[in-house]
Amino acid sequence: MTQVSIRVHATTDGERVVASFLVGHGADPVRALGRLGWGSPRLVDAFLEDGGVLVLAYRVVPATPEAGVEGVVPTDADLVVEPGERARPYQRTAAYGVVTSKRGLLLTELSARTSAPGRWTLPGGGLDPGEEPVAALHREVWEESGQQIEGVRLLEAHTSHWIGRAPSGRLEDFHAVRIVYAAWCPAPTDPVVHDVGGSTESVRWVPFDEVERYPLGRSFAPHLRRWLEPPR
Is the pLDDT higher at 44 or at 116? Predict the structure, then answer.
């Protein structure tokens, strides 16, 4: 897992390039496009270009430019900063999957090595150096569950920015970039965590009518119902 440069590449439906820029630390691509006067962004591709820059390619339409500047960076609740301590900028770019099968939705439980042990989330994790997002998705799903997937379809990219402490205790100015895919598992088996001792404590297939019983992490909980809807 490594920090990478991220470039937004935006075109209209007519394939006219209307924006191309690097995303600054903590910035959100959708908000940045909105400030430039481009709305209804639809993520159509995510890939590494020469030099290892991650490209997020959007289709957009003209819109009224959004006003405003970046606000105050939120901090973890009850965060105590020691005198002279400064937050270290840190970016994590990761790929996650809404993986479904005839057995339900694949969910992983966060381990004590994370900041939210006991919470449930989607299988996935950080990109290795030079790794394409789709390749990272396949690798992470296997490491965290032992499942093979197909029919991968790009959904969205989400970002978060806050100041808090890593599980190690290090104070970080954290920028999370999450690329989310839908995928199908044609031959589901009893899930097994292969990456023992990592961020995943356990994994299971959850019947669709039981998903809401699981305490989902805040990164994906607001969006999961929409992602589980059949594509239009």
Answer: 44
